[in-house]
Amino acid sequence: MSEICPICGLPKELCMCEEIAREQQSVRISTDSRRYGKMVTVVDGIDGNDIDIVDLAKTLKSKCAAGGTCKDGRIELQGDHKKKVKAVLEEMGFRTEVR
Q: Where are the domains of the chain?
């Protein structure tokens, strides 16, 4: 017997909770300058209750070929990757806003 999603009550194979959560969130992408003039791309506005931020950070790091971290509900990638991150997130179903 397949597992049942506790949120929507559908079997895990048919669950749409994460896709709906992606469409409802507005993700902000910006850059920040850190020590010694290093640029950091910051992805903010993701609700950690609905989406696995650690898994999303891992996907973004591999797509951008950059290091990074996930802390305080934000994803930080080393370097300026606004265009690439925007394309990957929109492909995954997020609404994005670049600053």
A: 27-98
User: pTM of the entire structure?
Assistant: 0.79
Please report which helix (H) or strand (E) contains residue 33, including its range.
Answer: strand 26-33
How does pLDDT run across 24-42, given as a tens digit for each residue? Answer: 778 999 999 988 999 999 9
Q: Is 30 within 8 Å of 20 (Cβ atoms)? A: no
Distance CA 54, CA 77 (A): 13
Query: Rounded distance, CA 20 to CA 5, Å?
Result: 14
64 contacts 85 by C-beta, under 8 angstroms: yes
The tokens 């080393």 sit on which residue? Answer: 78
Using a 10 angstrom Cβ sphere, with 0-12 exposed, 13-18 middle and 19 or more buried, the burial of residue 36 is exposed
Q: Scanning the structure block, which residue is given the tokens 């996930």? A: 70
User: Residues 97, 29: contact at Cβ < 8 Å?
Assistant: yes
Superfamily of domain 27-98: SUI1-like domain (3.30.780.10)
